[in-house]
């Protein structure tokens, strides 16, 4: 019994991973209950996931996404009778008394009820009630303890606890669309939405307004999540309570749309920002949170006079009675242009960049520096935004995952993913998902492959592989069995790199690389199943699936130019703002410290920010000269090598040096009896 799909014990490999369907779990539950004579308590102890699904069935008429279905043969097909006539005929007569596995009430809408399909994870902060599930806010994710999960699955010592109070399953969300939540609150809070129960994998963050316990339906983008479930964490310093009633399907046409200028803004101290904000398809635009002194007039005009440098969040809300959205952006106030340049430069991630991206980065930095003492504020801010964009788009040569392996999905152009055709040639029309192969999620996978798969790192790059790890897709370890890695520089002639094949195993397994190949550099890496496991589905002979493939090693440039060896450095900051105009500022944009490869791209929403941890490996000092790149990439894996804020050393500390010099002068003058103390102090 190798196919481990429930934490209580092993289930037959013949399940073939199909236990994700609740009605299949119900059929298996019936087998244990009535064929094997096990009691409900015994089944729950050994197979808690099967019990949970079998006792939370939809009604005989139900929705899958927005499609209405029924239990009378909706899923029968030519390959497998998952439900239909055979499903009903398989029911033993004794099931008539097993009311715990009866279908639920008939669904009247496509809304996904938290009462039926929501799961409290931290019972100290999330409780069921007549309206759904009510969650008390935590101060941070580390304060959330998933007590309910621990009680339900005591034998599961491997699943990460992600710090979410509640989860909602049974979803059929679009990959790049919208979903909404019907909820009510008694205060403001931040809602962190994750697709995986692991720390620091938030793909959306939305601001929740105080609804004064009135229901609203608030929407968020689904890009970056997965289709079938979401985890929710409510975070606030206040004792905010949020009641979740239902998940609601929606589309773009139903949502309000903020104007494009509702985005991050930069300005200088002493200036006044005036900006007209609008929202189409909305009946009301309002302010949820803002820095002291910021006002929003009835016509949407936002006004703010900046007195102190800093970064200040602004949260807007737009509603049309049917749907509500919120948007968070920041106002960054700088004392002078050099400070603005330095703060942008600090968002650089430590590590070696590719020559192509770093060339663009230095060109953008030079443009900003050329405007430090000339030109108006608007021209400077435009150049600063271009510099920030170049930082976001800059690519590390070796972005890594948390285990130190190469994150070949960090950038869309880092590795092209294709399958071979039947002749063995690379087929550009057949692609697969690289992001699913580096996410440490056994439920996601790179695709179902009928031919070997190839990663092409491009003509300008080569990779050296020193190790590899493989993770089977949940329920399908036989489809991962017997795999090898191969390398090539022409895509035709292949050299085997591994010295052993993958085994029939649901756990992450390491496969050694031949010692003679650990210094060899290749453009192409091929994943090929040479010794396939037992076929369990006649309809898919020779099929291969992988949840994760981690490649340890390094990527190198075939021809690294001199422009790829330096990064911009920090500059000395002047005493006073170096600006040439006193005009009010009107909506100039500024760089943000958001992740470079943000999983969600929709300017209407407050996007999720994944957490990264980076270590600055020391940029060299010098006046305005670029510094040598660090020779070691230290990007954390939790965010898949996305950008984070770092502290770069300044090229000098002008202000501190000046104060020290003045102090010494005062002491000397006093000691000599001069009357110049008042003048220089």
Automatic annotation (TrEMBL):
Keyword annotations of the record: Membrane, Transmembrane, Transmembrane helix
Polar residues composition-biased segments: 626-650
Gene3D superfamilies: Galactose-binding domain-like (2.60.120.260), Immunoglobulins (2.60.40.10)
Keyword Transmembrane helix set for record: yes
Keyword presence, RNA-binding: no
Compositionally biased tracts (Low complexity): 579-592, 610-625
Region of interest (Disordered), residue spans: 569-652
InterPro entries reported for this sequence: Galactose-bd-like_sf (IPR008979), Ig-like_fold (IPR013783), PKD_dom_sf (IPR035986)
Transmembrane segments: 656-677
Biased composition (Basic and acidic residues): 593-609
Protein name: LPXTG cell wall anchor domain-containing protein
Organism of derivation: Lacticaseibacillus suilingensis
């Amino acid at each position: 019994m190798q196919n481990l799909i429930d934490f209580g014990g092993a289930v037959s490999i013949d399940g073939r991973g199909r236990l994700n369907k609740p009605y299949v779990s119900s059929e298996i539950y019936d087998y244990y209950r009535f064929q094997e004579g096990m009691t409900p308590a015994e089944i729950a102890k050994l197979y808690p996931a099967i019990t949970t699904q079998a006792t939370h069935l939809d009604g005989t008429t139900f929705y899958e996404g927005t499609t209405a279905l029924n239990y009378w043969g909706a899923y029968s097909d030519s390959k497998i009778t998952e439900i239909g006539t055979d499903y009903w005929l398989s029911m033993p007569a004794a099931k008539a008394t097993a009311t715990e596995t009866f279908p639920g009430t008939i669904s009247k809408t496509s809304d996904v009820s938290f009462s039926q399909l929501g799961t409290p994870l931290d019972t100290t902060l999330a409780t069921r009630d007549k309206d759904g599930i009510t969650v008390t806010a935590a101060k941070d994710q580390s304060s959330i303890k998933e007590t309910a999960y621990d009680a339900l699955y005591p034998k599961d010592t491997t699943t990460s606890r992600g710090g979410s109070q509640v989860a909602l399953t049974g979803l059929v969300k679009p990959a790049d669309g919208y979903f909404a939540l019907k909820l009510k609150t008694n205060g403001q809070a931040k809602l962190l939405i994750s697709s995986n129960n692991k720390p620091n994998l938030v793909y959306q963050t939305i601001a929740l307004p105080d609804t004064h316990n009135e229901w609203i339906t608030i929407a968020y983008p689904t890009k970056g999540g997965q289709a079938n479930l979401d985890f929710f964490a409510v975070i606030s310093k206040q004792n905010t309570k949020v009641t979740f009633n239902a998940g609601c399907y929606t589309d773009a046409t139903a949502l309000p749309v903020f104007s494009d200028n509702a985005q991050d803004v930069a300005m200088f101290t002493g200036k006044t920002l005036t900006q007209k904000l609008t929202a189409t398809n909305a009946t009301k635009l309002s302010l949820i949170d803002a820095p002291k002194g910021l006002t929003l007039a009835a016509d949407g005009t936002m006004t703010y006079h900046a007195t102190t440098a800093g970064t200040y969040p602004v949260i807007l809300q737009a509603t049309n009675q049917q749907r509500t959205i919120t948007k968070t952006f920041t106002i960054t106030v700088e004392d002078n242009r050099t400070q603005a340049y330095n703060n942008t430069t600090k968002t650089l991630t430590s590590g070696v960049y590719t020559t192509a991206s770093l060339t663009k980065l230095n060109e953008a930095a030079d443009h900003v520096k050329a405007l430090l003492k000339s030109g108006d504020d608007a021209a400077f801010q435009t150049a600063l935004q271009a510099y920030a964009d170049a930082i976001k788009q800059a690519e590390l040569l070796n972005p890594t995952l948390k285990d130190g392996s190469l994150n070949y999905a960090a950038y869309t152009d880092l590795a092209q993913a294709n399958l071979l055709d039947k002749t063995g040639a690379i087929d550009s029309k057949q692609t697969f998902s690289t992001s699913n192969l580096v996410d440490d999620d056994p439920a996601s996978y790179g695709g179902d492959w009928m031919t070997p798969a190839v990663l092409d790192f491009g003509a300008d790059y080569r990779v050296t592989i020193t190790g590899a790890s493989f993770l089977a897709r949940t329920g399908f370890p036989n489809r991962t069995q017997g795999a090898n890695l191969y390398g090539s520089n022409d895509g035709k002639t292949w050299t085997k790199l591994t010295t052993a094949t993958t085994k029939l195993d649901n756990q992450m397994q390491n496969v050694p690389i031949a010692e003679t190949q650990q210094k060899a550099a290749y453009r192409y890496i091929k994943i090929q199943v040479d010794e396939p496991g037992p076929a369990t589905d006649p309809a898919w002979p020779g099929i291969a699936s992988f949840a994760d493939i981690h490649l340890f090693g390094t990527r190198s440039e075939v021809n690294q130019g001199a422009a790829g060896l330096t990064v911009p450095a920090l500059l000395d900051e002047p005493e006073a703002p170096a600006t040439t105009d006193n005009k009010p500022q009107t909506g100039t944009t500024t760089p943000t410290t958001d992740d470079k490869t943000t999983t969600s791209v929709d300017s209407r929403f407050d996007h999720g920010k994944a957490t990264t941890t980076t270590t600055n490996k020391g940029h060299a000092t010098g006046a305005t000269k670029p510094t040598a790149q660090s020779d070691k990439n230290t990007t954390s894996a939790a965010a898949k090598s996305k950008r984070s804020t770092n502290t770069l050393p300044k090229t000098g500390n002008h202000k501190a040096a000046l104060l020290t010099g003045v102090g010494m002068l005062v002491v000397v003058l006093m000691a000599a009896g001069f009357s110049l103390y008042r003048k220089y102090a």
